[in-house]
């Protein structure tokens, strides 16, 4: 067994495992967006980032604006459970920021959905997963 200091893993946003997770996340968002397109939704924004949070997808279908959180895990249940109360609050704050920048959107019905992805399974679209009312 070699002696000396243990191997150091790179830290920060450019770690190889972080980059891999980023690619998987982008791919999951693409699959979710295509899936929702097939259901009649139109993409308004992707990866809407604010200092207070991020929304994976913002979609519109008729008179409804939908803020979509996309989660990919080993199982659908794991994906649904991965959305913590803290994550919900971040998504809600980001949605408020989007609405502040796009006041015309306030005339639409607003909804928060989740698309859960798991290997070898069709995406699961959970409609009205949580509300703007905290």
UniProtKB/TrEMBL annotation:
Transmembrane segments: none
Entry keywords, A to Z: Endonuclease, Hydrolase, Nuclease
Name assigned to this protein: UPF0102 protein QO014_001834
Family to which this protein belongs: Belongs to the UPF0102 family.
MF (Gene Ontology): endonuclease activity
Origin superkingdom: Bacteria
Positions of region (Disordered): 1-23
Gene3D superfamilies: 3.40.1350.10
């Amino acid at each position: 067994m070699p002696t000396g200091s243990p191997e150091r893993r790179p830290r920060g946003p450019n770690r190889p495992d972080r980059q891999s997770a980023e690619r998987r996340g982008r791919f999951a968002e693409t699959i979710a967006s295509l899936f929702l397109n097939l259901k009649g939704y139109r993409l308004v924004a992707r990866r809407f980032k604010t200092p207070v949070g991020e929304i994976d997808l913002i979609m519109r279908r008729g008179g409804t604006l939908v803020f979509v959180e996309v989660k990919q895990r080993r199982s659908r249940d794991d994906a649904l459970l991965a959305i913590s109360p803290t994550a919900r609050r971040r998504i809600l704050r980001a949605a408020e920021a989007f609405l502040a920048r796009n006041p015309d959107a306030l005339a639409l019905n607003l909804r928060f959905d989740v698309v859960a992805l798991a290997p070898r399974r069709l995406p699961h679209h959970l409609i009205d997963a949580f509300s703007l009312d905290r």
